[in-house]
Amino acid sequence: MAVVPVIPVMIPDLGEEEAQAAAEAVRSGWVAQGPRVARFEQEFAAAVGAGHGVAVSSCTTGLHLALVLLDVGPGDEVIVPSLSFIATANAVRYVGATPVFADVELATGNVTVETVDAVRTPRTRAVIAVHQGGVPFDTVALRKAADDWGIGLVEDAACAAGSTAYGAPAGTGARVAAWSFHPRKLITTGEGGMVTVDSPEAAARLKRLREHGMNVSAADRHASKQPVLEAYLETAFNYRMTDIQAAVGLVQLGKLAGLVAQRRELAARYQRLLSDVNGLIPVTDPAYGQTNYQSFWVLLTPAYRRARDEVLSELAAKGVSARRGIMAAHLEPAYADVTPCPLPVTERITRESLILPLHHRLTEADQDHIVGVLRELATR
């Protein structure tokens, strides 16, 4: 039997330049958090329009620190979309608060002012809004609403590097945003994340929180020519990034604009090819911004006449490594003890959507094959 070549759903764009940067960090002798991390923080913050960047070990730890920064804790409620990777909801439990699930809008997969307001209570202390799959949420509307309500807004920008809202990078103007550099994202450090803020005081506290609460960083201590006696100002965490990771991240950051442009071209071609396939709705840009197409998903309607899992199986048999759509946290065993309000749009998207391959090595021939399988399934 002939082996069917597999078109992967995602491939990180890593090469010799990243390998050399990592090797240089190793040869330097400074492999823990140090000067490369500091440079990566500055350059990433500039790229997303933020005042300060604080590198961390993952976006999940970044979300945790964001809630600590806002002094969210036991007795508080934090509104989150169920339609998100489970880390979004988990971060709320890390601080002892209660996650409250909000529904999303069908077109973007994002929470809106209306879906958040529908579940807001006097105990609501914050909301975590996700730029889902790189599709930006309406930053102007939701930031204003959060201010009017007197609650904190944490932006889960795990997938949003390179996306824009109202003509600016998705992180511009965010009170606090958390970013991911997991290999499924456009740019990667293997594992790792970043928290961005505009306030220098917030940045200083975040840097203490990621490093055991020390009032002087280990890098500054080692760089000093005089003995430094540090103090530990509060109970905190070990959420640091290494200089090896940051070295890779600096190379990756230089590729971001090109990767976004390439993915948008490939996404536009998918949209053209799928435009006459009855029953499929591809993800598109919202009116107020542009997505980086970190994920390219399609929603199946009843007119398609095929169940999502059947489509995934058929694609796999033809060598296409697609994925189910974005998960719904409230349907997972970890949140079986939570009784959410009705979430009809969330449940429809998680049940009826799938993610198609999109990466820098995807060819037009690959796309033609993928769309051909979807077209065939729609007609037989």
Secondary structure layout:
Blueprint: H1 16-28, H2 35-47, E1 52-56, H3 59-69, E2 77-81, H4 87-94, E3 98-102, H5 113-117, E4 124-130, H6 139-149, E5 152-156, E6 164-165, E7 168-169, E8 176-180, E9 193-197, H7 200-209, H8 218-223, H9 243-274, E10 280-282, E11 289-290, E12 296-300, H10 308-317, E13 323-324, H11 344-352, E14 353-356, H12 364-379
Parallel strand pairs: 2-3, 2-4, 4-5, 5-8
Antiparallel strand pairs: 1-9, 6-7, 6-11, 8-9, 10-12, 12-14, 13-14
Helix pairs in contact: 1-9, 2-9, 3-4, 9-12
Q: Which topology of the largest domain does CATH recognise?
A: Aspartate Aminotransferase, domain 2
Under the CATH scheme, which class of the largest domain? Alpha Beta
**Helix fraction?**
25-40%
Query: Would you identify the regions where 5 or more consecutive residues have pLDDT less than 50?
Result: none
Q: What percent strand?
A: 15-25%
- Continuous helix count: 12
Q: Which strand order spans the largest sheet, edge to edge or round the barrel?
A: 1-9-8-5-4-2-3
Number of strands: 14
Pfam families: DegT_DnrJ_EryC1
Organism: Actinoplanes campanulatus
GO molecular function: GDP-4-dehydro-6-deoxy-D-mannose-4-aminotransferase activity; pyridoxal phosphate binding
InterPro entries: DegT/StrS_aminotransferase (IPR000653), PyrdxlP-dep_Trfase (IPR015424), PyrdxlP-dep_Trfase_major (IPR015421), PyrdxlP-dep_Trfase_small (IPR015422)
